[in-house]
């Protein structure tokens, strides 16, 4: 649908919803108005779904079914009361009203599945925590009283209980959608606003029912009662607007799940949900009679376990990020090899193992020949590509036990444990032959003498490297041993 048509639909819905307050006071007038808006919202959803790929239409069809059934139930309810005299639950309209909850919950579940194919345990814990807290509130003040209401048939009590249970189901799926990753454009928020309006309307009726005489008095106020009805009308209209918006195409796009961090709004919602159980207990203690002790115990236990689970997720996330930071601090960004810090940690350990096992260990220092000239000729991106390709080629040519690290710039170091000078030279020559793009390197080799420090070993290899450079490059030179160990130590 074009933007002008979508705006025309939005303006028309706003006008007819506002005009609901001006209707004559008659059930048939209000029923026709509500059904008309509900069917218009259904038609808008179906029209919007037609523009989507086949695989993305099913969630919207579920939304259309729920809204069509719910709005049609209004006409059936008026007919049952005005013509058939059916006012006691269950009425013929209740099945239509109740279809809204499973149909829309299924649509939300399908949409979430499209957006996040994997399991997002963090979002599931958050949604379960909020739903559990509000579910305990609904049990104490709505579900349990409805299930025990005298003068009503068993089927009537079951239908009365089904409404708050349906609200909890819808709340759980809406919370899960809000915690999912993916695009959050206008269509996303229109859809979320639609289900929020449904829940707000149902919650208002529940609150009025628990206010006793004050609630009955408010229901007798025409503009107030119609204001509650307008919440549901707004829900019908917003669902249609969400489907017509071009952003509906992006709603089912797969995205990575959100990280398990807690924002301020999430923290406030989880805190509020967790405090519902003690708040109910405090209220009943203050009244002098704890009537829902078992439910409060079960709810408190469930909320406690959910909070512990959420904290464990956050701790694991912090630990994972800490490991990543440690790894990044020891890894060269360009080549992915160990950096100088990692090399300085690993070399002393390798020398200590060599001292303990009596096995030889060699170190090589490699430097790409004429790298500055290559950079000046082909540019820095080409130089970076050479460094990455060369390091990958050298790594493949060396032995699995060898450690190649980037020491700085175009200079690399190689740790060759268990290798004497001959085998170390052979491994380094394989790396030299594998150097890509027709480039070469110069290298200095040093065999550890069993007493020198890491810095002294590197210094000998570095001196051999400069000897290779001075001898014409593209070669490997083995370092001479220190002429006098005791003299070297005294310097």
Automatic annotation (TrEMBL):
One of its GO terms (molecular function) is diguanylate cyclase activity. SMART domains: GGDEF. One of its GO terms (cellular component) is plasma membrane. Residues 359-481 form the GGDEF domain. It comes from the Bacteria. Gene3D superfamilies: 3.30.70.270. The chain crosses the membrane at residues 7-23, 29-48, 60-80, 95-112, 124-142, 154-174, 186-208, 228-246, 267-287, 293-312. Keywords: Membrane, Transmembrane, Transmembrane helix. GO terms for biological process: cell adhesion involved in single-species biofilm formation; negative regulation of bacterial-type flagellum-dependent cell motility. PANTHER family: DIGUANYLATE CYCLASE DGCM-RELATED, REGULATORY COMPONENTS OF SENSORY TRANSDUCTION SYSTEM. This is Diguanylate cyclase (GGDEF)-like protein. It comes from Pseudosporangium ferrugineum.
